[in-house]
Amino acid sequence: MIIVKTLLLKNTEEDIKTAAELLKNGGVVGIPTETVYGLAADALNPEAVKKIFKAKGRPGDNPLIVHICDFSDIERLNLVTEIPNTAKKLADAFWPGPLTMIMKKSDVIPNEVSAGLDTVAIRFPSHKTAQAIIRESGTVLAAPSANISGSPSPTTAQHVMNDMDGKIDAVLDGGASEVGLESTVITLAGAVPRVLRPGGITVEMLESVLGKVEVDDAVLHKLADNVKVASPGMKYKHYAPRARVILLNCNDEQYIDYVNKKAAEGVAALCCDEDIP
């Protein structure tokens, strides 16, 4: 894969068609979604999917999320062996939106997408431009975050260009991502629905629809090296900024004192709104 220059496309009907044509031909395109920008390729084309892993430097055992533009795509393209009733309930409540559901995959899904697992992660994004690109491409798109693996997820087209210029075919600028955090991932492949990656759809929101929902141990504890990754965001370094980060365990007064002493150009403090003095 030799790409000299990455195209920067606009959010126009013509450029959406250009992006879709690149995807049809096995290319890789950075696309906007409401969560973060995704690095998209035809999810049913194994060779195209391999280009995602190469561009990101992504471990091959880290599965990808398949993006659809309508719930009917799952059955129309035979993406899974069975659609559980729980999936239909969650789709009615949260799709399109920042929720990814894991189900038992069919043979249509390449192993490159599922990382050799018997499941597939599927999401229906709410971003209208993302939907238009998927629809125009005539397929479904595998699309992890459009950054070098381990780096913070991109929320603008420029963020994508910073990491991917010269590595992918194009980036379509659809404005800043509204959510700015990757989707919640829930597996429906077991006896009890289980959250594998936290996100904008909370456990409480999920339980309001399904009843009991479990949270996987990997959400709070690092997976062992020999454990298979069931979902993106479970095992490998994630959201890692290119800066020194110090975690403070102290009261408000000590926190304010520390920040004041360290205040300088290029120094920032991360905290919740309610904790801002």
From TrEMBL:
Its EC number is 2.7.7.87. The keyword ATP-binding applies. Gene3D superfamilies: DHBP synthase (3.90.870.10), Threonylcarbamoyl-AMP synthase, C-terminal domain (3.40.50.11030). Pfam families: Sua5_C, Sua5_yciO_yrdC. GO terms for molecular function: ATP binding; double-stranded RNA binding; L-threonylcarbamoyladenylate synthase; tRNA binding. The keyword rRNA-binding does not apply. Signal peptide: none annotated. Coiled coil: none annotated. It is found in: Cytoplasm. InterPro entries: DHBP_synth_RibB-like_a/b_dom, Sua5-like_dom, Sua5/YwlC_C, Sua5_C, T(6)A37_SUA5, TC-AMP_synthase_SUA5. Keywords: ATP-binding, Cytoplasm, Nucleotide-binding, Nucleotidyltransferase, Transferase, tRNA processing. It is an enzyme of class 2 (transferase). One of its GO terms (biological process) is tRNA processing. One of its GO terms (cellular component) is cytoplasm. Residues 13-201 form the YrdC-like domain. It catalyses: L-threonine + hydrogencarbonate + ATP = L-threonylcarbamoyladenylate + diphosphate + H2O. NCBIfam families: L-threonylcarbamoyladenylate synthase. Belongs to the SUA5 family. This is Threonylcarbamoyl-AMP synthase. The lineage of its organism: unclassified sequences, metagenomes, organismal metagenomes.
